């Protein structure tokens, strides 16, 4: 991870020295104008470099910083991760809270807010500035939870709607097929009757000429 | 016949959350009173209080089947951490008969929900022999796939599901 991040930086227009976090933060202010992708990698690198004890949290927010996912799924994945886990020990619970709040700004790709975060990154294991206010965190937290739950239940009810539509289609098709089946059966009966008549007719007339050529 | 991707079982993620894709091999008819359960039918708690009448198809009375009724959305669809909950387990059902002829290992329970709209699935699997299926120790955290593997049931041969919600629910719609 570290090497790939460095690799990306080396491709930038600026010549950026490697590894130390101070030089990185300096280079980061320069790379403010670079693509967001590069900045995300660098941001990731800072976190990885400065903290090993918060490795678990890093794993938590790696999906946020991945380049391939669109905004929505990153957000959801990111939020779902802490929600599905068992309640972590209290020391990291505040980290979790602060994890949830700052991504709202990062994901909107606001370079300025990220910049301020970078300055303090060396001190914290966390992603972003540690907001001391618990109520802020929990309010944002609750709102995000509510949003994802709402989104999921909307998706479920859309799925239910589709199921109903499909069954309706099948029922209509059944009715249609039954009608056609009945029609075809009637046709077949009539044909058979005609065939029967025709054969009877023929046996009667066996000694007679069936065609007379016109004179 | 294999399941089309628009089959309600697939759309509702019953195939996926509960079982792996399977092929419908025999018929399964479930009736709660007069009402036949079609996939995705909306039922209320009061309508499913008692056991349904279940009839299965097939043609050889010697083939025995196991029927499982479970719900994967416990305690609520948005937070199913107790997935799945086993409502009913009947084994040794001979083909062409119904659950009345089988062995009820886990008696019928209808813990329909307080919140949300839960999927309730009934699944039929073929047994290798008589009395080879063992009931699990508890109802919640039931795992259909593990259960099938432990009892040599393989993939199901038929399944149907419906949506269950409480009696004075609003059908998932806000007015």
UniProtKB/TrEMBL annotation, chain A:
UniProt subcellular location: Nucleus
Record keyword Lipid metabolism present: no
Ranges where the BZIP domain occurs: 145-160
Chain intervals with Basic and acidic residues compositional bias: 131-140, 149-161
GO CC, one annotated term: nucleus
Disordered: region residues: 63-99, 129-161
Keywords: DNA-binding, Nucleus, Phosphoprotein
InterPro entries on file: bZIP (IPR004827), BZIP46-like (IPR043452), bZIP_sf (IPR046347)
Span of the signal peptide: none
Record carries keyword Nucleus: yes
Entry's Gene Ontology BP terms: positive regulation of DNA-templated transcription
GO terms, molecular function: DNA binding; DNA-binding transcription factor activity
Source organism superkingdom: Eukaryota
Compositional bias annotation for Polar residues: 65-75
Predominant subcellular localization, coarse grouping: nucleus
CDD domains: bZIP_plant_BZIP46
Protein name, per record: BZIP domain-containing protein
Organism annotation: Brassica oleracea var. oleracea
Organismal lineage: Eukaryota, Viridiplantae, Streptophyta, Embryophyta, Tracheophyta
């Amino acid at each position: 991870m570290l090497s790939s991040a460095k690799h990306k930086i080396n491709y930038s227009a600026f010549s950026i020295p490697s590894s130390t976090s101070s030089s990185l933060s300096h280079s980061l202010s320069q790379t403010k104008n670079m693509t967001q992708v590069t900045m995300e990698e660098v941001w990731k690198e800072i976190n990885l470099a400065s903290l090993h004890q918060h490795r678990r949290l890093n794993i938590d927010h790696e999906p946020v910083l991945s380049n391939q996912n669109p905004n929505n799924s990153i957000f959801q994945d990111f939020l779902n991760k802490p929600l599905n886990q068992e309640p972590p020990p209290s020391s990291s619970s505040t980290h979790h809270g602060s994890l949830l709040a700052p991504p709202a700004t990062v994901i909107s790709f606001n370079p300025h807010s990220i910049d301020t975060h970078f300055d303090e990154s060396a001190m914290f294991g966390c992603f972003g500035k540690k907001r001391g206010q618990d109520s802020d965190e929990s309010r944002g937290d609750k709102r995000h939870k509510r949003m994802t739950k709402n989104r999921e239940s909307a998706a479920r009810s859309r799925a239910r709607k589709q199921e109903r539509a499909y069954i309706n289609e099948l029922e209509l098709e059944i009715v249609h097929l039954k009608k056609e089946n009945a029609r075809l059966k009637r046709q077949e009966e009539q044909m058979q009757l005609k065939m029967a008549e025709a054969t009877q007719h023929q046996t009667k007339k066996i000694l007679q000429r069936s065609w007379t050529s016109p004179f | 016949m294999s399941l089309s991707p628009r089959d309600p079982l697939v759309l509702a993620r019953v195939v996926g959350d509960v079982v792996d894709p399977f092929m419908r091999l025999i018929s399964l008819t479930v009736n709660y009173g007069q009402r036949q359960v079609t996939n995705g039918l909306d039922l209320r708690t009061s309508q499913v209080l008692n056991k349904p009448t279940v009839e299965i198809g097939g043609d050889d009375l010697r083939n025995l089947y196991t029927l499982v009724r479970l719900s994967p959305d416990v305690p609520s669809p948005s937070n199913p951490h107790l997935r799945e909950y086993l409502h009913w387990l009947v084994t040794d059902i001979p083909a062409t008969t119904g659950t009345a002829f089988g062995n009820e290992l886990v008696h019928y329970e209808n813990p329909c929900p307080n919140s949300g709209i839960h999927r309730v699935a009934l699944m039929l699997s073929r047994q290798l022999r008589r009395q080879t299926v063992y009931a699990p120790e508890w109802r919640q955290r039931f795992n259909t796939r593990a259960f099938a593997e432990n009892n040599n049931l393989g993939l199901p041969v038929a399944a149907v599901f419906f949506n269950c919600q409480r009696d004075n629910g609003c059908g998932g719609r806000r007015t």
